[in-house]
């Protein structure tokens, strides 16, 4: 396998930028690409997109989008996007021509500031360690900081060499909700019926700001973790800060605004894959409604893709509303894939990499139930695999006594679940990514593929010639991509223009407007696809356009331009210009 395709380590910002640069040197010379800084973060890091144009930068084509790591601790998504990029380079180098028929966008890390903060000092954030709220808005909250030096560990990550990394504190409490497992005392798990003391409360390592001397804030009450980027997009957005960290307004964050603005300038995007962890599942729209509320074409495409994706990756593909709503009756709001589908009209999926629930025996449906009721049976399996396969990164850290100025006697340790729970152990990166890479072939095959052909038809009049212009779509998706795109952007016509004529004169119109073309996607309507049903949609159009030839023996020529608003411009030439 190529060197970068399945790296055996998680990438900090410097590593990621170096790998991007190294991959860019591997593109064949004939392939155009751009490494674009689409935003500069508040901490001065670049949000990078790589655009690839197999037929040249000036050629618009259906476009495929990959991104990852909009949640700061979901590192393996970055590795996966880079693996897709390297796989594409391999296909282009080997002249596999079907990969020339679409353009590509790769965004390996949407949240570089938050991710780098964890790699530096172990501070966990949903997205960024950033907060615009004032102290009086926050009230009493936890300010995270290192209170006791940690031991260096023989683990190939810079984080574990930093003695000032931030961990967790536990304090004995008769009403505490955490307990040491009786079989594995190093395992802290949630208290269950029948458990015996001692019980503990657990908080982030740090101190309480605005402390009144009596009331200890919840461990989730932090002064630097305001916005979840994946609740900040302008589709079904809601200003619900306490529950979903959506921000004061949609696109309030540099990163979410940059992604939305950059993508909105690429109307050719037909498919969007947004990598997260963990679970081992693909999740698609709709979030707020059942599939029955979706147009039949879009529903048919999604249901077809659900089956194909599971066949290729082994991960089930599910409706967000039906199988991935955390709290019944409260669908997720402001998600990136809701925006990319509803506003941009691109078929969109989240992929939650790393099928840890299945590996510990959880197979329930709806899928969200696989995260419920992790009790001692599940946590003991996690402990054993951490001990046997993961160098005890998660549970192998001793608790050390500390006299806290506000809480009194506490113990401090670490729980770096990002390396084993949120992401797979580093040695399993290859295994997790390898089932994703074959998706590239499927996703390229989805694209609408206009085909333009011309031929001459003789007439009874010697100086009159008809050009038959055939416009067809040989791709899976229609040329308008989705009904969601029609709904958000309007039904756009195909525009046919005669832009150049040699040795002849056009008779009639120079511009024609045609309806969009269907693809070969089967409509899922409760009945079998049988040949006796015939064809009921139009995937081709034909125009006969007359020309008056100046001289009978002269070779005349015509250039046609066929414009698809969501795909680009296509050209066909009859004769030689």
From TrEMBL:
Sequence ranges assigned to domain Peptidase M14 in this UniProt record: 9-374
Active site, renumbered: 352 (proton donor/acceptor)
GO molecular function: metallocarboxypeptidase activity; zinc ion binding
Record has Isomerase as a keyword: no
UniProt cross-references to CDD domains, sorted A to Z: M14-like
Family to which the UniProt record says this protein belongs: Belongs to the peptidase M14 family.
Protein's UniProt name: Peptidase M14 domain-containing protein
Species annotation: Silvanigrella aquatica
